[in-house]
Design goal:
single chain; FAD/NAD(P)-binding domain; 2 domains; 17 strands; globular; binds flavin-adenine dinucleotide
Length: 387
């Protein structure tokens, strides 16, 4: 196979990188994952997400991890409410009978990011992940990559796969193309013990998800298995809003003052998002890669997931990263290609084609979601979905 006697370095231990590591190890490849986090538990993993039949779930199944997934997913966590800025409910599927299950194309089981990451980490051979490996640059020496880490360490690899997310350090080695700002910004936070710390929103949430929409603004809330809730406050902002706002994002009072002005016509229930002293607020301007992007394939380096095709959150990002991993692992180990370069070219063409479709829908979605008709459009879209 193409990877015989080769060292593969996967940069980034997110869902895409870890899925690729597992799938390649199943085929006998020699793989290391270099992850900047200092250890497995140093960071609380983000919100719950759903895996899709044709992408995330397919990769989990091919990775031999469906039983582990079934033991960790959260039935009924996909229950959904859409409300307006006054928290009046416009769409609610809590009482709908669930008719789909594993094996059905429409079944999209929810899992928290932490357990998903653990399933993937536990499936890898010991010492596959090299923690505390924040990559700062790559140097090509003949046909080998020298990988340079922030902590002064170095490593060598024959093939590098950049799975290091939105601000990829590997991307500039593959392409000069840069992400552009989508026009919308999120303010992200988590509230521990939401029943105690945000009781009104907790009871509206009912263990599922809420989208609140109004005045071309959004608030998304989702319940996590540890009793906390994640939220994303979204609105249209300038690209430099984070700097220009002058807000110290470690100062909850300053953020609350901003929210009261920006969301002045919204109900007081949303102020509960700012009640808890341990909440850390992270502003995230949302970026995308250009939909017509294309680059010349190289023989021993490529990208997957957000590093390759960043988009604003659309419910597909983890799924697509895992599907990239599945495609790439199959292409590199199928025996159909005599050389790495055409194999990588074939993988990248598939990825570009998928991205055009997904990207158009996402940019469309950002447009309608942050329009004055966002709520109406959201309800219409949900009413068209199969049960
Ligand atoms: C607010 C928000 C909500 C979202 N909701 C959903 C959702 O509901 N469903 C969904 O499918 N997707 C969702 N997404 C998108 C999803 O998070 C991403 O598309 C997905 O995580 C991409 O996976 P990845 O493996 O490519 O990259 P990432 O998950 O970003 O993982 C990259 C990894 O690389 C590491 N890393 C980064 N830089 C370096 C470096 N220099 N050296 C070494 N390691 C490095 C990081 O620590 C991380 O572990 C959401 C995104 C956001 C921002």
């Amino acid at each position: 196979m193409l990877l015989q006697n080769k060292e593969v370095a996967i940069v980034g231990g997110g869902p895409g990188g870890l899925t690729l590591a597992r799938l390649l190890q199943l085929k006998g490849a020699n793989v290391k994952v270099y992850e900047r986090d200092e250890s497995r538990d140093v960071r609380v993993q983000g919100a719950t997400l759903d895996l899709h039949f044709e992408s995330g779930l397919k990769a989990i199944e091919k990775a031999g991890l469906l039983d582990a997934f079934k033991a960790n997913y959260r039935p009924d966590n996909d229950r959904y409410r859409v409300v307006d800025k006054k928290a009046t409910i416009f769409y609610d599927d809590h009482d709908k009978e669930s008719t789909s299950d594993f094996g059905d194309e429409s079944f999209r089981p929810e899992i928290d990011r932490g357990p998903l990451r653990n399933i993937l980490l536990d499936s890898l051979q010991p010492d596959t992940v090299v923690w505390d490996s924040h990559i700062v640059s790559l140097e090509k020496i003949d046909d080998t990559w020298k990988i340079i880490f922030q902590n002064g360490n170095t490593a060598f690899a024959d093939i590098v796969i950049g799975a290091d997310g939105a601000n990829s350090k590997i991307r500039p080695v593959v392409t000069p193309i840069k992400p552009f700002y989508s026009g919308a910004t999120y303010l992200v936070g988590n509230i521990e013990d939401s029943e105690k710390n945000a009781p009104k929103i907790h009871s509206l949430l009912k263990g599922g998800k809420i989208s609140a929409m109004g005045d071309s603004k959004t608030i998304f809330v989702s319940a996590k298995g540890d009793g906390s809730m994640d939220f994303y406050i979204g609105w249209k902002a300038t690209a430099d809003w984070v700097k220009e706002s002058g807000i110290d994002f470690k100062n909850a009072e300053q953020i609350l003052e901003w929210f009261k002005k920006e969301y002045a016509s919204w109900d007081n229930i949303w102020l509960e998002l700012f009640n808890h002293k341990n909440t850390q607020f992270i502003p995230r301007p949302l970026y995308c890669m250009p939909l017509d992007q294309h680059w010349e394939p190289q023989s021993n380096i490529t990208l997957l997931g957000d590093a390759a095709h960043l988009l604003p959150p659309n419910g597909e990002g983890v799924n697509t990263a895992m599907l990239d991993a599945l495609d790439l692992s199959e292409i590199l180990t199928s025996g159909k290609f005599a050389d790495l370069k055409p194999a990588i070219a074939y993988y990248e063409e598939k990825m570009f084609a998928r991205f055009v479709e997904e990207g158009k829908e996402t940019i469309d979605m950002i447009d309608w979601m942050y329009s004055p008709n966002g709520l109406k459009e959201m309800v219409k879209t949900l009413n068209q979905l199969p049960n």
